[in-house]
Specification:
There is one protein chain. This protein has ten helices and 20 strands. The chain is α+β, with helices and mostly antiparallel strands. β9 and β10 form a beta hairpin. The two termini are 23 Å apart.
Length: 378
């Protein structure tokens, strides 16, 4: 017996598809509504910590994801300037436990494709080009869902996993929204030099952080973190030029990255944001998870992992209880809100120390503390 028989999910990101997989595997009828016309093939790479990999295993998708990504151990810090010398080699905490790599990089489109495939094989119905536009309670046990302004029927639960600018969050009257942190990031997807075998970060120079993460045998993504500027609307040509110019202080593998940029690799720009919705994340039979409920800078690479944990915990409760009652919601919030809040606050603090020019901040201590916390399953 499950607490729900029919569930609608807004959004086909990692949190939404993870929830769809687990619920469909348990025999729940699942409809995923994605406003975009198809699964996005765009995007650079993503860094995934061990606790995210542990969730993929629970979903049954770990073997496919491991084959498509690049697992690695440890983190190197390099100095800007000639030769880009390695100044520190830091071990990673295995947040997923001893059975998983400490971290892994992979192309975002590949991750999306694998999760979609597993959701559909589990029996979830994924509808592209369909936008949720309304939710109305029907008593205490049902929600009427409106898609493209027309009724799509009643559901036992609606899950809003529709990202930073969540429509579902707005529909249920939650006013919290992502706010800029003051930092912006340039990203590009390029070839991987053989010497890059793990994430490497450069502190100092013209930007706050210059770094890269391997995502496959032949690929990696590279990034530059700067003070937020109005870069939106920048042409592709100017975006490439800016990223090239800002990276010239960095040697080593950055020479290969610049060669790929000059050969036509695309550069894109976004701002870092932060928000955390105070509990409850639900309003009756509608609940938000993932980026709809919390967002943070990728300074400790826990954003996707937190959305995945939201989905796994919610699905666990829905498939092991008989009712969607207050006890279920209390346990969900107890297991998720403090953990997500810790990640958001730590991620923002790391960036704020750089914005404020704090030189004696205990960055390793903060990162290690969060990693130890994440090593305990949600």
């Amino acid at each position: 017996m499950t607490a729900v028989r029919k569930v609608a999910i807004a959004g086909s990101g990692v949190a939404g598809l993870a929830a769809a997989i687990q619920l469909a595997k348990a025999g729940v009828e699942v409809d995923v509504f994605e406003a975009k016309p198809e699964l996005s093939a765009l995007g650079s790479g993503i860094s995934l910590q061990g606790n995210a990999l542990r969730v993929f295993d629970a979903l049954g998708a770990w073997d496919d994801i491991r084959a498509a990504g690049y697992p690695f151990e440890g983190l190197h810090l390099r100095a800007p300037g000639p030769g880009a010398p390695i100044v520190a080699q830091l071990p990673d905490v295995k947040t997923g436990g001893p059975d998983y790599p400490a971290a892994m990089g992979m192309p975002r489109p590949e991750l999306a494709r694998i999760l979609l495939d597993h959701a559909q094989r589990a029996g979830a119905h994924v509808h592209f080009g369909r936008k949720i536009t309304g939710v109305e309670a029907r008593g205490e046990d049902a929600v009427e869902l409106y898609v493209d302004d027309a009724s799509a029927g009643e559901y036992d639960l609606v899950i809003g996993a529709d990202g930073l600018n969540s429509t579902v969050r707005e529909l249920i009257g939650i006013e919290a929204k992502p706010e800029p942190t003051g930092m912006g990031i340039w990203r590009t997807f390029v070839s991987r030099p053989a010497e890059v075998e793990r994430s490497e970060l450069y502190y100092g120079g013209p930007v706050f952080i210059a770094g890269y993460t391997p995502t496959g045998e032949d690929s990696m993504y590279a990034f530059l973190v700067e003070k937020a500027e109005d870069r939106f609307g920048t042409s592709d040509e100017d975006a490439t030029r800016i990223m090239l110019e800002e990276s010239r202080a960095y040697d080593g593998p950055w020479n290969s990255i610049r060669a790929d940029l000059e050969a036509g690799a695309h550069a894109n720009y976004t701002w870092f944001t932060k928000h955390i919705v105070d509990e409850p994340w639900n309003r009756g039979r509608v609940v938000i998870i993932g980026d709809a409920a919390h967002s943070c800078p990728p300074t400790i690479a826990q954003g996707a992992a937190q959305g995945l944990e939201d989905a796994l915990v919610l699905a666990e409760l829905l498939t092991t209880r008989d009712d969607v009652d207050q006890e279920l919601w209390d346990e969900f919030h107890e297991r998720r809100v403090p953990r997500a809040k810790s990640v958001v606050e730590a991620s923002v603090q790391l960036g704020q120390w750089q914005l404020d020019g704090v030189r004696d901040a205990d960055v390793p201590g903060l990162m290690f503390g969060i990693a130890k916390q994440m090593s305990v399953p949600a």
